[in-house]
Design a protein that fits this description.
This protein has eight helices and no strands. By secondary structure, it is mainly alpha-helical. Helix 2 crosses helix 3, helix 4 (95-111) runs antiparallel to helix 5 (117-131) and helix 5 packs antiparallel against helix 6 (138-152). The chain binds adenosine-5'-triphosphate and magnesium ion (MG).
Length: 196
């Protein structure tokens, strides 16, 4: 039987383990559409909260609390690192160390203006999604974090292709191709995508 919550119609979407399926809070949710809808409510609230004042984005505690705010009504593990492997992402035991390294690097890029603001925020985004700290919601969390980071440097938030990235459509395919190019240190596709 098809389980809409575990089927992977898009290889870049993280499959849920049975444990994570068990960790879904609203018991009435049976379809991916319903899931997207409740998630979106929490994300919109978190977005308003995050932009309501100046935030120290390059901080582990902030990034965890941001994920918690986004998904706390939906997932029991909102705001906590994953403990199981994924097809993308570092080994679970490496998450904290790799994240600390990324935050150190990104703070250095900001403090010394190593790259223009868009490039700093998108390099940060690509490495954060590559680490894949959370059981789910990594893409949405890392996009909001990149928006907050670029705004904190005086830039404008990104348009991310101008469409919803939740469905397996062409915009999402372009986004995934762009983050993948970032894995190989080619940030041009992501720089272009995030401003279209
Ligand atoms: N090769 C890759 N390198 C880096 N990041 C990747 C790669 N493939 C996918 N990703 C990231 O992983 C995300 C999917 O992970 P996850 O399901 O945890 O996030 P999500 O927020 O639920 O998804 P979505 O981005 O569809 O809203 C993608 O959106 C993208 O940001
Ligand atoms: Mg997902």
């Amino acid at each position: 039987m098809n389980d809409p919550l575990t089927d992977v119609e898009d290889e870049a979407a993280t499959p849920l383990t049975p444990q994570e399926r068990h960790d879904l809070i609203p018991s009435y949710i049976t379809t991916r559409d319903q899931l997207n809808e409740v998630e979106q409510l929490g994300i919109a609230q978190a977005d308003r909260w995050a932009f309501s004042r100046k935030r120290k984005v390059l901080d582990e505690r902030f990034l965890l609390s941001l994920h918690k705010r986004m998904f706390q009504d939906v997932w029991k593990w909102a705001g906590t690192f994953r403990t199981t492997p994924r097809n993308i992402g570092v080994e679970a035991y490496q998450i904290a160390v790799d994240l600390r390294q990324l935050l150190d690097d990104a703070r250095y890029w900001v403090d010394h203006a190593i790259f223009p603001p868009d490039e700093i925020a998108l390099r940060f985004h690509a490495r954060l999604t590559w680490i894949h700290p959370f059981p789910n919601g990594n893409g949405r969390h890392a996009r909001l974090a990149a928006d907050l980071l670029v705004v904190s440097m005086g830039g404008e938030r990104f348009s991310w292709g101008g469409g919803a990235l939740v469905d397996a459509d062409t915009t999402r395919a372009a986004y995934i191709a762009a983050v993948r190019a970032g894995d190989g240190q080619d940030f041009a596709p992501l720089l272009a995508f995030a401003r279209t």
